[in-house]
Amino acid sequence: MSAVPVTPANRADAAAPLLRLAYAAPLAVVAGLLLVTAYPALAWWPMAVPAVVLTLVTLIGRRFWSAVLVGSLFGAAFFSVNLLFTARYLGPVPWLALSVLESLLTAVLAVPIALAYRWMPRIAPGALGRLVLLPALVAGLWTLREQIVGSWPYGGFPWGRIGVSQVNGPFAEVASWVGMSGLSFLVVLLCAMGVELVRAGGLRRIVRVVPAAVVLVILVALPAFPTTAAGSMRVGAVQGNGPAGYFDQRARGAVLDAQLAASAPLLGQDMDVLLWPEGGVDSDPTANASTAAVLQQLARRVDAPLLISAVTERGSQLFNSSLLWTAEGQVGATYDKRNPVPFGEYVPDRAFWEPFAPDLIGLIGREYTPGTAAPLIDVNGIGVGLAICFDVIYDDVVWDGAAEGAQVYMFQTNNADFRGTDENLQQLAFARMRAIETGRSVVNLSTVGTSQVIAPDGSTLDDLPIDTAGHMLTDVPLRSGLTPAVIIGPAVKIILGWGSLAGLVAAGVLAFVRARGTRKTPTPEGAGV
């Protein structure tokens, strides 16, 4: 790779704004709206590339406040549309609050990317710096933004990651090696390399295209990491389509009755387990003897254990729980949802937030306690990894299940509060990516749909349409062995995210030192003549 001549002029050009703010601001909005189309329901996965490219172009050379403005416009355009489902029942306040929060975080975290574009060309203006180091730093800082938004505040909300948008495309299998954060990094890296190639005129020299070509080949050609076949499990899964929404009018036990009715065609069928969705039992079977008796009778009639979900009470605490039920009653461990939804299943700092929206906050009367148990249940010697609803968007829950011995995943969810929106499809994209990432089958079951049985390669084995009562009876492949994503995933996140922040700080220090040295160096006699 031939070097780019190092001169004060090209250092300044590389660090200068590429676009006037009057053009960058509207383009940031366009980028955010383009990125929305990469996610379900449209799921135009290639659109993530121009969206990321446009976003980076608008940030090149920006100073602090202009970077904040551009970042906030991109974030507002993307999140306000992508999270529109949150307004389905509760109106505009929750949607607006979440969208504004995510946009503000995006705005603040756009600044490090802008600083990378200002500092890195000053310390590494050659081809290696421009075409490799700078794009890698930018991609790492983008990944760091996803991680921070996905973990803070109140556990964060890791929705809208670039990696998830690629579930339908040829890049998805790379997630089995580096996880979703690693996939986000590689996609942004490719985009950032493309931007720098064009800026540096590198397309005229084939050798300069090599780094970007290598990244592209990795994304397209790297096959999924092979896990080991370990037989199959015959799973009955029932989508009752009952009145399971927060505001649905229903009689006592109506959701349970809907699940029982939809399970009836499975009576007499051979199966290893009968799976019900989150909230499929609308009373606590550990405390309600009549509900427990109904479940025991069903277990006898299908001659298989039931994997159900219900709200359980222990002392003064409430949990969103997965329970294994047999003809003899509850058996085995209980898994409690690790990540109850803030302002949905509990209200953090209620005394502070309630005055801002007393009517809405007052609707959330129950406070769910986060679970601490391993996300795994043993079903007749088969390890079943678990995640309840939005648990599926948190890496640690899924990775812990695989590490504990999961041979298959069963995700229980309730999308009834989001009927008529794309939320169920966006969550389903996470479930499909988890199958690819871990090399394991996933049974993703909702009260109201969409429900699917997903193969380890992300393909669909069986499904139930939305707003339809029905069942699936599927021979689900089992797998053993851990993918690199599960083993090194936590380290990848640390290296890419916090490592890029350390790299940015180092670049800033070196740029400062170099700038001071340049100012102190006397100009040679006759220079510039």
How would you describe what is shown here?
- The chain has helices spanning 8-15, 21-36, 48-59, 64-82, 92-123, 127-149, 162-165, 175-199, 206-221, 254-263, 289-302, 350-353, 358-363, 395-403, 423-438, 484-520, and strands at residues 228-239, 273-275, 306-314, 317-326, 329-336, 376-379, 382-388, 408-413, 442-446, 451-454, 460-464, 470-480.
- The longest helix is centred in the last third of the chain and has 37 residues, at 484-520.
- Strand 4 and strand 5 form a beta hairpin.
- With 529 residues, the protein is an alpha/beta fold.
- It is globular.
Task: Provide key terms for this protein.
529 residues; alpha/beta; 6-stranded mixed β-sheet; 12 strands; disordered N terminus
In short:
The chain has about 525 residues and is of the alpha/beta class. The strands form two sheets. The chain has a six-stranded mixed β-sheet. The chain has a six-stranded mixed β-sheet with strand order 6-7-8-9-10-11, covered by helices on one side. It contains 16 helices and twelve strands.
The assembly state of the depicted protein chains is single chain
**In sequence order, what are the helices and strands, one letter per element?**
HHHHHHHHHEHEHEEEHHEEHEHEEEEH
Largest sheet: 6 strands, mixed
- Shape annotation: globular
Structural class: alpha/beta
Roughly what fraction of the amino acids lie in strands? 15-25%
Instruction: Tell me how many strands there are.
Output: 12
